[in-house]
Amino acid sequence: MIADFIGEYRRYRSLGERALAQASDESLNHVPADDANSIAMIVRHLGGNLASRFSGFLTEDGEKPWRDRDAEFETRPYTRAEIESWWTRGWTVLESELAALTEADATRTVHIRGVGLTVHEALCRSLSHVAYHVGQIVLLARGSAGSGWQSLSIPRGGSAHYNQHPVREKPPA
Fold first, then answer.
1. Among 112, 102, 87, 115, which residue's Cα sits nearest to residue 16?
2. CA-to-CA distance for 5 and 154, rounded, in angstroms?
3. Yes or no: domain 2-164 corresponds to CATH 1.20.120.450
4. Does 160 have pLDDT greater than 80?
5. Which tens digit of pLDDT belongs to each residue from 7-41?
6. Is the pTM of this model over 0.70?
7. Non-local CB neighbours of 148 within 8 Å, separated by 6+ positions
8. Nearest to 45 by CA among 75, 5, 15
């Protein structure tokens, strides 16, 4: 079961990275509407969330006192280097903690904002959160790339060909 979570997180990390690689530096800071978030803000938030939730995952509350969640949504120009740093930090913490988990840990209780969840519940919640935000990143990156976008999934009209060679059904190694 833990290996399944690791694989799905890996799939979403790869998807996000492939989308970020296609986003121009300018588009990383584009806020598409009032009270909306740029790609940079979403990455800052996701990185902060992963670092907070998974630092001391089994022993500490997932909402750390050092995290300033509201600051993750500040509208300002962010550099690609900052964005890549937040992304890498969050994923590194997550992957390190996941690698240390055993199947027996799945029923242990962890806490987020003082609320007890099983490890399995916390991982389901986190994976849904990651999927939600990676989807936003993909949508924003796709919208900014225009006709130069390289599909991250099955291209339009390509289902029959893909079904003969399904290469994305397993997460990247």
1. 87
2. 23
3. yes
4. yes
5. 999 999 999 999 999 999 999 999 999 999 999 99
6. yes
7. 22
8. 75
Say which amino acid occupies 31: V
- Which residues, 6 or more positions from 32, have their beta carbon under 8 angstroms from its beta carbon? 38, 140, 143
- Each as own residue / partner, the long-range contacts of residues 31-39 (CB below 8 Å, 24 or more positions apart, any chain) are 31/75, 32/140, 32/143, 37/73, 37/136, 38/75, 38/78, 38/140, 39/83, 39/137, 39/140, 39/141
